[in-house]
Amino acid sequence: xxxIKVMTVFGTxxxxxxxxxxxxxxxxxxxxxxxxxxxxxxxxxMLDQVLSLFQIEPHHDLDIMCKGQTLFDITCRSIQxxxxxxAQEKPDIVLVHGDTTTTFAGALTAFYHQxxxxxxxxxxRTHNKYSPFPEEMNRKLTGSLTDLHFAPTGTxxxxxxxxxxxxxxxxxxxxxxxxxxxxxxDPAYRFADNILQQVDYAxxxxxxVTTHRRExxxxxxxxxxxxxxxxxxxxxxKVEIVFPVHKNPLVRKVVQEELGGVSQVKLIxxxxxxxxxNLMARSHLILTDSGGIQEEAPALGxxxxxxxDTTERPEAIEAGTVKLIGTDREKVYAATKLLLTNxxxxxxxxxxxxxxxxxxxxxxxxxxVLWKYGLTRERPGxxxxxx
Length: 387
Fold this sequence. Notes:
Layout: E1 4-10, H1 13-26, E2 33-39, H2 45-53, E3 60-61, H3 71-89, E4 93-97, H4 101-112, E5 116-120, H5 135-144, E6 148-151, H6 154-162, E7 170-172, H7 176-182, H8 194-198, E8 205-210, H9 219-234, E9 239-244, H10 249-259, E10 265-268, H11 273-282, E11 285-288, H12 292-299, E12 304-306, H13 314-319, E13 322-324, H14 329-341, H15 343-350, H16 361-372
Parallel strand pairs: 1-2, 1-4, 2-3, 4-5, 5-6, 6-7, 8-9, 8-11, 9-10, 11-12, 12-13
Helix pairs in contact: 1-2, 1-7, 1-16, 3-4, 4-5, 9-10, 9-14
């Protein structure tokens, strides 16, 4: 075989951020690889922002997003659309990423066509099927359909081995989010948002907050916001809280009820990836229930307090860059106050070694694919960071 067709499938902003380095790396081998990009647009506007930033033009755009879409809608529409795309393109391998519904639908459709599946960011586990929901099962089900497992860390590899995945099919690559981050953060970056332009990054400690997880909707989020209100009142002359508020109306309603009108809290619309990455770089610490931020922020030396009871990314907890604090009001308040007042604790977290990558994950993934299809002779090296 002298040339292979490699299809990448993704549909959300987080997937696009982490798959963009892979798409760009595949394009570096035109003599050996015919790359095909298919997007479901499970997220429309947020996906387009990332495609524009990395100058990626999909060959197939299913544009499935609809108002009020459910997991059933996303799954069915993705499979139906990808069925036609794969039947037309007949790729040798389909690469999917992570744990979204698009990920599972892409892997399942490839399986039905008897096409090999490569899973980027394979092996993350909480071992709780409903936390995070539906991501934990999306990831496990995709793993059952996968031929090449691109595990970001040694811990992820161990999770796969524990599930009887053959070691010859697992490659530890590091996480592609670090590749994307290194290409995006710029000390000279200027924010277009007027509120972000006026933030005093030089003298105030900036607390960046994001919340969106389904399991935190309602009272858990309310408790978090009440803790933030307490912090804003106690440290009124020392901190500023910047909160890009998710567009989910259930999130926005509680945010406005608890934090609307608090002068130290800047409520802004969700940011594109480039300004958000640069905002992370200028923040003092981050409170989030996001999975990806647990990987990105440590690469920037920023402590992360995770507003969840479980995480599929234990490496950062073990390394000390991330602390799992849940959503209890007093616990959120105490953990945040500690990092604002205890310099030794702050430095311990901010200076801990990032276990997630070195910016070469995409190169390793593409070299693995080439090696497995006999287009290169030397087995690729693996990422040695993390556990």
